[in-house]
Amino acid sequence: MARPSVRNLLAEQPLDTATVVGGSANLDVIPTEVLALTPGRTPDVPRGAIVVTGLLEGYELELLLRRVHDHEASLVVTAVDARRRLLSSTTVLAERLALPLAVIEGDPLETARRLWVRIHEPASEHGLALARLARRLQGVGDAKTVIKLLDTELGIRSALVGAEHVVLAGTEPVRALHIDTRGGTKTWRDRDGFTCLVPIKVGDREPPRLWLVAETGEIGDDDAVKIESALNLAACSITAWAATERLRAERDATFHSTVLAELLGSGPQVPRRVLSQAVAAGWRLEGWHIGVHLLLVGGSAPEDVRSRTRDVRDALAAQHLTGPLVERGDGWSTWITGGTEATPQRRRDIVGKLNTILPLVPESTLVAGVGRPLLGAPGLVETLVEAQELSRFAGSSRGRQRVEFADEAGVRRLLAAATSEDVRARSQRMLGALLSPANADLARTLETYLDLESSATSTAARLGIHRNTVVKRLGKIEELLGANLSDPEVRLALHLACRAK
């Protein structure tokens, strides 16, 4: 409801019987307040106020006109016994000041009271509308209901939008949104009407990620204030909803991370308890699984991973990779499950999609490892472990692939890429005593043996020693490292370590 102008007020009670005797050229002013004055007193007059006074002598009224004009009063209403009591000079003065002057014959105090109620009716309606909205928002637990209430109560188009202007609830905004993550509530007008934008802040130390938007046609200032107040009121409910969703997501993320950690630590024989927890998490354990590990380069804290989970999930979903996404200490694990073993082409498609996705996640440097397709719960464990190991050899620098996957070409790339500092550190721990100068011959023998596809004969020929010497050295190496060189996985790990040392 818009505030009435002086012209509107003169057309309705209690001023519809009043006579305007001056200042009639300035009737479109919007009054802001009503002030009843007793004779002999001229207190501070608010700008835009209607001043109502009782019977005044001619000079007193003219003095009052000058004083309230200096305060930019919008209308003076005065009581008279008869028209003759008004001096002609008073009419001339009102015209010269362009200050509307109306005379009434009724009770000035009653007139002032009724005018005050009329002037403040929009504010009263504003308060009632907000109170009604507040009552209806009580107990509302989802954003869509909040948006529907705003639209119903205010007669507006509203929406909840997130990053990249994605609409989470409500109607798609038709106007450009001037989103500023550093600012507060914003309102603006254009030729199409009025827009209000209210940020939703869930945490004190992070920028808003959600915004409430309201759009209307052309409206008055009072309605604009009402809409802005209503959106700020609704923002409290949206903030509570967003905080609840975040807590639920963090609780679920913690549960999923714990279950996956137990699953990966269980070995080939997964305990029934862990299987039950995995099922409770909604994971499909039967079928063929391809493990994927997304490594966040430079991430050093759980918050580094947690703050990017939504962006990572959205990026994966955009390429139709919609398997579970579980937060890990260094990134995320996910997997793709099917009823049959994935073909080589299917695996290449997954690698291609990951190569497309990883550079697009904002404020992140991501690399990935993709494990082999393996069957059942034990296979899921193995492919995820394999994917995480492969991710550590991935990279965006020269000689590396952003996505490493477990095939023969991938192994060759791993051998060429095993040069990073973190790999060197792990390699030194793996090789242990072989790195001592006293065991240089053993280290050289091991590296040559692994380079020559684990052939003792070829190693002896390359080093110029007897084959039996190679066999003895290999036995000594197994003793020092506590490793079984007949195990192909052990040989691969040691081969990588030798390349990285």
From TrEMBL:
InterPro entries: CdaR-like_regulators, CdaR_GGDEF, PucR_C-HTH_dom, PucR_C-HTH_sf
Signal peptide per UniProt: none
Domain PucR C-terminal helix-turn-helix residue range list: 442-500
Pfam families: GGDEF_2, HTH_30
Start and end residues of each CdaR GGDEF-like domain: 271-389
Alphabetical list of Gene3D superfamilies matching this protein: PucR C-terminal helix-turn-helix domain
Family per similarity comment: Belongs to the CdaR family.
Protein name: PucR family transcriptional regulator
